[in-house]
Write a structure and sequence with these properties.
Length: about 100
């Protein structure tokens, strides 16, 4: 099997989320996202409006400026993309441990 066939098998998954915690993305939330994303080998991208940032970079995540109510798309690509997306989804669903 050549490298092209292997490349076709790389999973890419995306899902949209609404930021529901009161303070939106701030330093602690960004740190949680980066810490979670860094556990996975897959690339993790956060997309808001026309801006795409690396989910493993705290400065990138903070630069998105996501207040409560913002829509963020999470795209994961790689061998553990499904698990990575589930882990990041759990952060959004639990409001990053905030109200």
């Amino acid at each position: 099997m050549g490298w092209m066939a292997l490349a076709d098998q790389v999973a890419e998954i995306e899902q949209e989320f609404i930021v529901t915690n009161q303070l939106g993305f701030h330093a602690r939330v960004a740190a949680q996202i980066v810490k979670t994303a860094s556990r996975f080998r897959s690339d993790i991208w956060l997309i808001k409006d026309e801006t795409t940032v690396n989910g493993k970079s705290i400065l990138d995540v903070l630069s998105l400026q996501c207040p409560k109510g913002a829509t963020v798309k999470v795209l994961t690509r790689g061998e553990d993309a499904e698990d990575a997306l589930k882990a990041v989804a759990e952060l959004f669903q639990n409001k990053f441990g905030e109200s």
